[in-house]
Design brief:
The protein is an alpha+beta fold. It contains three helices and four strands.
Amino acid sequence: MPKLNDVCRYVRSKNAGPFWVTIDLFFDGQDAYQRYSDDPAISAAAIGRLYGVEAQAVRRFKVDTLNVVKISIPRSQPQGGVLERDMHSGQQFVPMLDIVLA
């Protein structure tokens, strides 16, 4: 069974304002996108468990024309706060790379 990193040509995370992080999954072509974009391993519930947020707080957007799934989650700490550890959220995608897909 493939990992997310095997079926995406690019995975990135970035700031989505002071309270949100967005993770973009750029699938490696339309076939991979159609097969895995709705995989339960990247559902709102699964992402919520992975990042320690409630599933209702996870926002998923599919961009069919680009073969992309955008996932937004609330930041654990506000951007620039004293406890915040990744100002630009550039490292937040890493836990997703090893997600095993069905």
